[in-house]
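Researcher: Re-running this chain for the archive, since the previous output was lost when a drive failed. Same request as before.
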Amino acid sequence: MAKDQKKQPRPKAETPKGFRDYFGADVTERKAMLDRIAEIYHRHGFDPLETSAVETVEALGKFLPDVDRPNAGVFAWQEEAVPGGGSGDWLALRYDLTAPLARVAAQFRNDLPSPYRRYAMGPVWRNEKPGPGRFRQFYQCDADTVGSASVAADAEICAMLADALEAVGIARGDYIVRINNRKVLNGVLEAAEVRPDQADDVLRQIDKFDKVGRDGVLALLTTGRKDDSGAMIEGVGLSEAQAAPVLAFLTSKGADNAATLANLRAAVGASAIGAEGVDELAEIAGMLAAMGVAEDRAVIDPSVVRGLGYYTGPVFEAELTFEILDEKGRKRQFGSVAGGGRYDGLVERFTGQKVPATGVSIGVDRLLAALRAKGLAGTQAQGPVVVTVMDRDRMADYQAMAADLRAAGIRAEVYLGNPKNFGNQLKYADKRGAPVAIIQGGDEAARGVVQVKDLVLGARIAAEASHDEWKAQPAQTEVPRADLAAEVKRIIG
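Model: Regenerated structure tokens:
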């Protein structure tokens, strides 16, 4: 055989690194959860939007092409050049659902209502190094209002987020929506006389508050501190007097919203932008109370600092407060499952005009994991009723049975494998999680009856019951063919 005719190796049957496959129960549970969230968003007057999975790199905005390909972070490729038209466009898979919204809001601004309220659900892709629980494709669920500068839009998003968490099964007391405001932080930085070139460094250290606490942030803002390995982390270089308003901001959470707002007013001092931020938080708190969202569901909390470098006004985070066991058996809180805020500068990239916007994004996989941790998802999904095949030449009769069951709203299928071994048919039904198997041989057909086998009860009797109990509560019954659907409905409830 010639060298170039050598047999090609078989491709490996493996999922690409950083990706995963979703099977029946995973897909079903995710859809059920998203359907419940969509109903809440729909009830609040938000419209669904589906955008292409592909955007131009220019529209995505955060990543720009280099000589060979765009910067790491997105899956991108270059279109073939058009003759006489220069190089082709760089395209990329979307890395979130917000950048496509900004493009849509700019592109269709003359056709869409203003404000434009939309929700979107779907996969996004990030070309990042995968790790445990970190995948390159994952689902997001967003809701945004574009075109309203009123903090009423922010308050509504927070109320809607609380409603959505409860709609999927998270009980009150097991979550809290926490709300902060970038303007308050700007006022604190102003009161602390932080130079513009120090602001980003201060933000980074503030973001470590939940890990290192008050004293740790004080050290990081001033002279520095040693990390767990003993290495010295350089401080920002603020004086303790400068750091004081920042620490007052971080520790201003009071017993209720009124106390927190009073502490924040003290922290921002004479800063006008800071006072504006506190006023906005007070408005949001008042509107949430008017909507019936009490402080045990959504609360003003200055410790919410993630995303403050991106958001321009109110910022919020939904945290699940119940405890789970980590991989080492230690108790810990589940943590954040959603975040959002006001991002007034995003659409401006396309139009040159400021367009106010606010929104929230739910981490779909993370919220589904939380429901499983609470026992609200992850149970064995019920499979279809399986109509077994006793006589190959009567396949039409079996298909008619399945059709009758479906017409009655019952999920059903006919066994389409080799019917020679009846035991294999029951094994198949077991593997499918079938609650019931339907059996009709020639004798039953002649008498106009079918055998209905309750597989769930049969498995329980086999595992637990005595012989007498088995005789008193048989798992297989004979019913007239006309009563098939009614009997199956009775069994599966």
